[in-house]
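Dear colleague,

Thank you for sharing your sequence with our group. We've completed the structure prediction you requested, and as agreed, I am returning the results in plain text so they can be pasted directly into your records. Please verify that the sequence below matches your submission; if there's any discrepancy, let me know and we will rerun it promptly.
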Amino acid sequence: MADALINPEILEPLVARVQDLAAGADGRVIVGIAGKPGVGKSTLAQALVAALDHAAYLPMDGFHLADVELDRLGLLDRKGAPETFDAQGYGALLERVAAGESVWAPGFERALEQPIAQSIPIEKHARIVITEGNYLLLPAWHRARAQLTECWYVQLDDDVRLRRLIWRHVEFGKTPLAAQDWVRRTDEPNASLVGEHAGLADLVISLD
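Please find the predicted structure tokens below.
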């Protein structure tokens, strides 16, 4: 089950909102998209970038700690939890982005399940940056949140989200049973934490 395309009735008002933010801004506009695992954050972020002029995409997933480090820290079976990311590094890069710098950002290769250093260019002409990740609204991620012009929260029917999440794990190598177990043990506790902070968002978007 591939991620669904974003309905134009949802996308078009969001594009207009970002354009309005950019029209009234002196510098870069950085919009963050938060939400539970599997909700469609990256799909929405990339759809926005494709629909906007002079826009760039910066995923939080590039700040995953590498598996070798997670193993050393005893966190490999918690991969995807807040403590398995370099939150301060993400915040520091967003500070440079907000200052208008041209930067190289890390990406995340799902086929390898590993971050890839300096694989995403954010060039000077990018007046709009769309970034996304589960934890942008959490208080511990305040350094990143402080750089965002707005932070949105995306929600989706949990049955649809869970089917999508399990399928994604299977697509990238887990058996169906292992995928279901991982979602139950790891992804859903993280999802509950994310959902607790939805009320801090500037905008709540339903993708149902």
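Summary note from our side: The first helix runs from residue 8 to 23.

Kind regards,
the structure core
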